[in-house]
Design goal:
- The complex is a heterodimer of chains A (258) and B (323).
- Chain A has 258 residues and is an alpha/beta fold.
- In chain A, 28% of the residues lie in helices and 29% in strands.
- Chain A folds into two domains: 207 residues, 3-Layer(aba) Sandwich (Rossmann fold); 31 residues, no CATH class.
- In chain A, helix 2 crosses helix 5 and helix 3 crosses helix 4.
- The relative contact order of chain B is 0.12.
- Chain B has 323 residues and is of the alpha/beta class.
- The chains are: A alpha/beta (258), B alpha/beta (323).
- At the A-B interface, helix 3, helix 4, strand 7, strand 8 and strand 9 of A face helix 3, strand 7, strand 8, strand 9 and strand 12 of B.
- Strand 13 of chain A pairs parallel with strand 17 of chain B.
């Protein structure tokens, strides 16, 4: 089975996010990017499928900046090919545009299964995987955990997670696009030494992005932190003070004796 | 000029989901601004009985077919695309849920209409549509001007009061046959229910929930001891379950459980929208997180901006000695 995993760089949400002077976009000057965490699950599921059933894993990324190390890390984890799609993506790219580019690029890459992360922190105009599937006229299922080849090899059985812990089991004909919520195992870790070694011994392939006119169909007019009326009362002081204060609050509400 | 507001009704096992009522209520508000009607789009098999719950709509467009007996993204999208293409509503509201996600983006791709995802709000004024999306893990809100005569918005659960969309009445029903359906490439096999046997976190009065801030599986006992000292149970956010550190039965949030305990202590949980959806109904919420901008502090009553490893053991110790 040929599995393709498009991965995407997103702002690291652990860091402070600043809005630029326009008030409509992120200030990218000090922005730290990292691989979308759901994409790590998509890659892990792909690698597990390959280990169990054979095949190849190809990782794709639009060059939105800082992708090289991410792609080498994917190779270090066990991907067979890593392709950087070059183009003017450094200021960010809408999901609709990314999907249109990926759809065109996939025309020359064999794919039985495309695994994407279920969503990304910045996909304001929708999830890339679904838009990609629609562009390629392939079936798509999102919020998937667990992918297994169905008997006969022409389909996969997947579990789609609803709320309340209920899941639907669906059989999906190949080729298909799946939005992975969680791999069946925690994403593997590639030691830095291994990544360095791969950087020396393997090369990233590069494909220039085709020129396409596709946009989000909407324009951000304001980007801001949410204004909240009911913000928490923040308890201050030393850890000792805070623990005492919490104990008092919990006691007053009957959750602890004091 | 399109004026109608379409609402895709989500239902599972004969029950209309709360998010559908939230969207109907919001749909009423948007229809007032657009001067159009609220159309509820109801797909399934043997679901006509649900119409009586959809009194907030002006009309229900009902499509019943064997292929729609169980939800599959493909068949539902195909039917909805045909209905929406014919009606061209001004705005189509779809739930940003496991079911709605495939539909919203799929319809945007199929119909070529703009999509704004993760919407917390939407406004129509002088036929201009503004959508407010909650992105970057709930840290920022993006207001966007939406182009075109028709657009799709996917709505985060918990954005609007469900009560506003719960109205008695018997809206007009238009039964629409499905378009010729392709041979399904996605086939429903079965529903899988959560395994019983573990603690039922939906029935606990006190939950202490652990998130990514705990850093390592070895630190989970720290949180478990606090749960015990409070006479409650241990629950978790999604990353902890994905790591395999706690079973799925302990997961709070969109793809886990919705909980409403008397006390919810969030330890090292930043509060992504998917998590908050599952716990915002708790009576008292205490959050401990190192990031002062973590969205969890927007729903918590009491917040501690501190290293959990400093505060947690002290609190547990004090609780134990006071008991």
């Amino acid at each position: 089975m040929n599995i393709v995993v498009p991965v995407k760089m997103v702002p690291d949400l652990v860091e402070e996010l600043e809005v630029d002077a326009s008030g409509c976009a992120l200030d990218r000057s000090f922005l730290k990017l990292r691989i979308n965490e759901f994409d790590e699950h998509a890659l892990e599921e792909a690698l597990l499928l390959k280990a169990k059933h054979g095949g190849t894993v190809t990782v794709l990324a639009l060059d939105t900046g800082e992708v090289d190390e991410t792609l080498f890390t994917c190779l270090a984890k066990g991907a067979d090919r890593a392709i950087k799609i070059t183009g003017a993506f450094q200021e960010g790219v809408s999901s609709h545009a990314a999907a249109a580019v990926l759809a065109r690029v996939l025309g020359s890459i064999p794919h039985d299964l495309v695994l994407t992360g279920v969503q990304a922190a910045d996909d304001r105009d929708g999830q890339v995987g679904i838009l990609l599937a629609t562009a390629l006229d392939l079936p798509h299922v999102s919020v998937v955990s667990g992918v297994d080849p169905a008997p006969g090899g022409k389909a996969v059985t997947v579990r789609q997670e609803y709320s309340g812990g209920i899941m639907a089991e669906l059989e999906v004909d190949l080729p298909a696009v799946l939005g992975i919520q969680a791999a069946r195992e925690a994403p593997r870790y590639a030691p830095v030494s291994r990544v360095r070694q791969v950087m020396k011994t393997q090369k990233l392939e590069e494909i220039p992005a085709p020129a396409l006119e596709a946009g989000a169909g909407s324009t951000v007019s304001r980007l801001a932190k949410p204004e909240t009326g009911g913000r928490a009362e923040i308890l201050e002081g030393s850890p000792e003070d805070i623990a005492d204060r919490l104990l008092t609050i919990l006691s007053e509400r009957g959750f602890a004796k004091h | 000029m399109a004026t109608d507001i379409a609402v895709v009704i989500e239902h599972l096992e004969g029950k209309v989901s709360d998010i559908s009522f939230e969207m109907l209520g919001k749909g009423r508000e948007l229809a007032k601004a657009s001067g159009g009607r609220v159309l509820a789009l109801l797909l399934g098999r043997g679901v006509k009985g649900l119409v009586s719950e959809l009194g907030a709509a002006d009309a229900v467009i009902l499509t019943e077919h064997e292929t729609l007996a169980h939800y599959t993204p493909e068949a539902h999208k195909q039917v909805l695309a045909a209905i929406l293409k014919a009606r061209a509503p001004r705005v189509t509201l779809v739930a940003n849920t496991a079911m709605g996600m495939d539909l919203a983006a799929g319809l945007s791709g199929s119909l070529g209409w703009p999509l704004c995802a993760y919407c917390r709000d939407a406004r129509l004024a002088d036929s201009r549509l503004t959508a407010v999306s909650q992105i970057y893990g709930g840290k920022l809100l993006a207001d966007a001007d939406v182009e075109g005569p028709s657009a799709i918005l996917s709505i985060l659960a918990g954005s609007f009061p469900a009560e506003a969309g719960k109205a008695a009445g018997s809206p007009r029903v238009e039964e629409v046959p499905p378009p010729p359906l392709d041979k399904p490439r996605i086939r429903f096999k079965r529903l899988i229910r959560p395994e019983a046997g573990d603690v039922d976190i939906t029935r606990q009065a006190v939950l202490v929930s652990v998130g990514r801030g705990i850093q390592s599986k070895d630190n989970i006992p720290l949180v478990e001891e606090l749960a015990q000292a409070l006479g409650g149970a241990l629950s978790a956010s999604r990353p902890i379950v994905d790591q395999g550190w706690l079973p799925k039965t302990r997961q709070v949030g969109k793809s886990g459980m919705t909980v409403k305990p008397k006390l919810y202590v969030a330890v090292g949980i930043s509060g992504a929208p998917e998590h908050i959806e599952g716990m915002r109904g708790a009576e008292r919420i205490v959050a401990i997180n190192t990031d002062p901008n973590a969205p969890i502090f927007n729903v918590a009553h009491y917040g501690v901006v501190s290293d959990l490893f400093d505060v947690l053991p002290l609190l547990t110790e004090k609780l134990k000695s006071s008991n």
